[in-house]
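Can't paste images in this forum, so I'm doing it all in text. The chain is below; anyone willing to post the predicted structure tokens underneath?
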Amino acid sequence: MNNVKLIILGLSFITWLFPVANSHARRSMLGASSRNISKAIHMNTRMLRPKFVINSKYAAPIVALHLDKNILTVGDKQGRIHEWNLPTGQRISMQETNAKKVKNHTQFRQQQGARSFTSYQYNIELTSPLTGKTITFSGHTDTVNTIQVSSDKKHLFSGSDDRTVRVWDMATQKEIARLVAMRDGWAVVSPSGFFDGTLDGGLEDRLDALGWEIADRILNLDGFLESYYSPALLGRLLQQKEVPKQQDLPKVAEGFALPPTTVIKPPDTRQSPTLIKVTVNATDQGGGIKEVRLFHNGKRVNTPAAITTGGKTQTHTFTVKAMDGENNFTAVSLSRDKIEGETVHASPFTARLGQEAYPDLHMVAIGINKYKNPYLDLDYAVPDAKGLASYFEVNRNLFDAIHRYELYNRQATKTRIQTTLDLLGTVPAGDTVIIFMSGHGDTLAGEWRFIPYDLTNPTDQNELALKSVSASTLQLLVAKISAHRIFLLIDSCKSGALIDTFGEYDMQQNFAIISRSQGIHIGASTTREQSAGELATLGHGVFTFALLKGLEGDADSNSNGQVSVSEVLAFIRKKMVTLIRENNIPPQRPTTSSRGIDFTLTTNNS
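Text version of the structure:
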């Protein structure tokens, strides 16, 4: 009987504990055996079993937990206190304290000894409040320091030296999710591989600090974004809501086929100083080759490549126009499950083409106050769009010329919007493009859609599908723009009641994919309704008011007299929280995602 128990215990370790070991767990004999067994089992399918890794520089061991209704408070060994909103799954605050005294914080002190448990081999054993029997939770990869049980006795939360907070189902003892908190960034990851978290900021704030180690490769969590990113993930998991996905996907912790490896050759400048050839080789590692992407100074190259296919390796040769100054190229390949391999870099080179020192600005301003259906009318969409366009007309010292493309009210039809954005395909690579869209937005089958002037009934799914401007259409139009500096801004007000509690989060996923796949910067906000009385004191919508204040200089965090895209996005996130609280405005969630090169939007320097 004891032998049977040992066999069962060994199997449980092989199938779950070691695949999710963090950076503290070392490769033991059992770990090596599990990898060999896993490779043998999946040899034919090429589905290899990974382990979850955390860069230990950016996250600290968890020493204290406190549950109060829908708020989870977490204390770590670096003295930081993090608050998580459980219904949405988002971290809502982080406070720096004294590391040695974090467990003596008032909230945590009240919880010490509230529930006893035994930690053995990083497992948790406690008496079930449901059955009175001892139950075991297996999965942590280092010492468990603290646990809390939810008031409804459905979930257990545990904090460990492995730098995670794990969330467990009390009835099944299965892990639902793990939470990781960095200095400013955070993440929620499910055993299936779906995740939510910070999409921009520095390395210590972003999902680059986390990943899956598989077959001696570490794949950043960021590289799973296009298939596995799911905003409000923790809320969905706790409420047993289905996690939306675009296709049938493998459960990451149980194994997945490897994405391609990529090699980029040094750019060939021999034939022409302005037209460069860049060759990228992608080699199938079992997951197929879905796509190969080349980025020039952070922006995705939109010219199609000449593709040579031979066996497992594809050769993609791009012809790209050089930019005056430094030219940087990166490339990445995606598997059929849209999992990215490692990003590779080519040696940069400098071109001296004698171009103008100042670029042009192409400002697209779209705002709709008056709809064909008066029931949809708004108050601040047009003032917001005009306010931003006027700002750059006055503060134009960074640009040689300003080109304004403005569509207001009845001009903002689907056809006119798409035609206008299509015109930007001829914009030179060195110019700057800002696209601002303000009006109603809605979602259909998980995809965000902008509602133009002539869409009269957004509740009619057929009309919404035919007459709206979808996120995928925006992505295609942005892909055609050659400009390397693109800033997309969306101020979207819901046209009606949300389909479900999590419907408003669909926009986050859509725009995150656009930003990452195209190498652009996005700032977007959505609210359920817009109230004229609540916004009258600001003269603009909350999002646009914060944006304009940031451009006027409030976002200049390093006091150098210049305001960059990254500074504006960081300022918007913080300023909107203050404005909403001070003006008693319905909650709005800004979505920000930065990819590509950071660039200056405005300057006070003469």
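The radius of gyration is 26 Å. Residues 565-583 form the longest helix (19 residues).
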